Here is the input.
Amino acid sequence: MQFNLSVLLSQLFLGLVNGSFYAILSLGLAVIFGLLNIINFAHGALFMLGAVLTWMAMDYLGINYWIMLIAAPVVVGVFGILVERLFLRRLYKLDHLYGLLLTLGLTLLIEGAFRSVYGVSGLNYDTPELLQGSTDLGFMFLPDYRAWVVVVSLLVCTVTWYVIEKTRLGAYLRAGTENPRMVEAFGINVPLMITLTYAFGAGLAAFAGVLSAPIYQVSPLMGQNLIIVVFAVVVIGGMGSIMGSILTGLGLGLVEGLTKVFYPQASSTVVFVIMVIVLLIRPAGLFGKEK
Here is the structure.
């Protein structure tokens, strides 16, 4: 195979775009598992909800992308509050399997409902007019929208990590999951804090869905394949590790890009090969804490 630097750099950037989605989705999963101890298999459905709601708002109501970038995560976050209050709250002291089965069932219900209305064919969502151009980098024409996705994803991930790891609010969140009675003694409403944490994780998934709408075709099943990869990212980074999810998501996106250059046939499986290797060497993940 003839080496082509332009192709390599182009694929690396496309891998970075995919890695941005992996990072922001795995971040939401890590927040929910790390602070609530729930394996949220509904994350792919919440990602799909963000994209579908954005398409519906444009097609039915004429609401533009920029409004939905805020509105869709809020709506899905409110839905997350209902899910946590009605169902998940009863499962926190039970085995992880119960939460996984509940959220899996929820995924099937959400996807089935939208599939019965829209089918499985993709729905087109146009790139926002402000970001429809491209920039000539010499080795490739960089679509402005894809650059926007990378920048805003990194910004959201960095702010989330900082709030959880470096602020008093994050300290309360971490302490509330480990010793809720002690935190409640300081006058903090721990159940409300946990509810809002799940809502935030759901909102992150919806935010990624809005970002993805102009890149991928919007479909009720769009979260299925992606969420499997994202779970692998979380396992590799370490379950519950915020920084591990971010760095692993970006890194695996770049690895996928490299694989498409040198051995395209393995690009869809390389993440799972890495997961197996990491689990054999370090079962807690690259950034996870060994028990």
